[in-house]
Amino acid sequence: MKKIKYFLILLIPIFFMVLSGCSKLSLTTTKDQYQASGLVAVIKGKATKATKLVYTLNGQKHNIKMHNHEFALSIPVSDRNQDVKIVASDGNESATKIVTIKKAKRLADYTQFAQMYNYFTLLAGQPTDQIPLVAQNGIFNYKKNENTILHFNVQNSALMGIAIQDSLTSFKTKDGIKSFGQTLYSISNLTEANGKKVMSNLQKQLKNAKDGNKTNLKPIKSHGVKFDINLSSEDFYVYVTKE
After folding, report:
1. For residues 72, 73, 76 and 77, what is the CA-based torsion angle, rounded to 10 degrees?
2. Which CATH class is domain 28-101?
3. Residue 202 and residue 37: Cα distance in Å, rounded?
């Protein structure tokens, strides 16, 4: 009987050590370095046993939402490398991970682009279609009309990319198609791409997709500018970035 008690006394600490090892806080990411995907870089990872997760970028802290301890956060890409510090904690201990977002090529100088954009909209008889000449770092949204929204990523006065978002319902009308076409054509030319070739390529791909010949749309490239196309259940997106 004494031997059994002695054995249990030895076993209990070992049992709790095993439990402690199983419940240890950990923080992992899918990569150490991330590249641009459209206007942002998406960092994915897992924070096991964490009750709180935050990241710090440029001296500013932000909370990260988790689902089953997994997370994904989008960081606007810049013309400079960015180090993102991620910290997971459970109230007793913490784990830290630093990842790098690789720099991307700038699409244009933002103020110069905005001046040209506003000038050409005035020539087109659209005086209310004007974007701000100065923008702070980050992504800002501009509602061009009822169906079209432009998303601009501006970093250090550089225009890093533009996302053109349009409702799929607008493609059911001639006016909607014309409006989207004018927007894409003008942005293509303002970023030194060939607007005619971009529109021609897109029209061909959309026709093939409609005829059932293709299940996905390929990126369009013109003069070093890339146009990535994405369809959702309700919207049509074109991401304009530098190759």
Report:
1. -50
2. mainly beta
3. 20
Q: How confident is the model at residue 172 (pLDDT cuts 50, 70, 90)?
A: confident
**What span, in angstroms and rounded, lies between the C-alpha atoms of 200 and 88?**
49
The amino acid sitting at 190 is L
CB count in 10 Å sphere of residue 83 = 11
Which pairing describes strands 158-167 and 148-155: parallel, antiparallel, or unpaired? Answer: antiparallel
- What does the alpha-carbon distance between residue 204 and residue 217 come to, in Å, rounded to a whole number? 10
Residues 6+ apart with CB under 8 A from 160: 39, 76, 77, 78, 79, 104, 106, 107, 153, 154, 241
Structure tokens at 79: 């013309």
Write the single-letter amino acid at 117: Y
Lowest mean pLDDT among 6-15, 16-25, 85-94, 174-183: 6-15
Q: Which residues of the chain are in CATH 2.60.40.10 domains?
A: 28-101
Q: pLDDT tens across 195-208, in order?
A: 999 999 998 888 87
